[in-house]
Amino acid sequence: MSVTPVPRTVLVTGCSSGIGLATAEMLRTRGWTVFPTARKAKDLDALKSAGFDPIEMDVADATSVQAGVAALLSRTDGTLGALVNNAGFGQAGAIEDLSRDAMRYQFEVNVFGVQQLIHLTMPVFRKQQAGRIVNVSSVVGRISLPFLGAYSASKFALEAMSDSMRVELDGTGVSVSLVEPGPIITAFRNNALDKMEGNVNAESSRFGDMFKREMARRRDKVKQVSFINKPPEAVAAKIVHALESAHPRKRYCVTPPAYAGAYLRRFAPYAFIDYAFKQRLRKRGETT
Hints:
There is one protein chain. The chain is α/β, with parallel strands linked by helices. It has ten helices and seven strands. It has helices at 18-29, 41-49, 62-75, 100-128, 149-168, 188-199, 208-220, 232-244, 256-267, 270-283; strands spanning 9-12, 33-38, 55-56, 82-85, 131-136, 174-180, 251-253. The chain has a seven-stranded parallel beta sheet with strand order 3-2-1-4-5-6-7, sandwiched between helices. Strand 1 (9-12), helix 1 (18-29) and strand 2 form a beta-alpha-beta unit. The longest helix has 29 residues, at 100-128.
């Protein structure tokens, strides 16, 4: 059977800003033909103005994902070199305060959309007998954070799904890598606060006062690039390695907290991690 040459074409989801946009720009400078996705017309227009050929896609909408992949493959003659699943968001709030709809939407974006994209592109990769898949996860995919339980659950699911796929795809020529960024200077924090305000009733929550203080504190705090907080290009560089290396890694940590989270999950007992989080909350006077 003849093998289709693998093109340097890549679909990158969630490219309106931040990690997705930085990844699209970095890959383009390295000779890749990049098809970035976005949901909103203004973001698609901005990508076009930047010289990209964007794909309209809402990963929470199965019909949109299917239409987006069809549009992509029509532009690439049915071939694809790589898939970068970057689109995602974090639903903040205590588990007890979130509705079923809020939990479902968290998983639609961070898990179900990823799985559908893999389902739709895998026949292309199998036909080529080669391809790269990069799933952008998080340090909270290893250690669940209080008041980010929904987001943590979705990233735990993404990690489990990726681990299964690596074994299932053995011998196919398709690799799967996870990237765990940690704190990156993007709009992620403000987007999470917006989702929290929209889906959590602070007046009825037993954590209401804490939520109000946290939201005010975090909106007033402007992060700067530092040893801890990295720019989105730091994540893009890891994604590039996963796509171009002859031996891509299974997992890539980016920031010191991501490395620390991986170390703690491997060596620290659950009791120690629980204690550390409880002490942190008590120190801030945030427990009730």
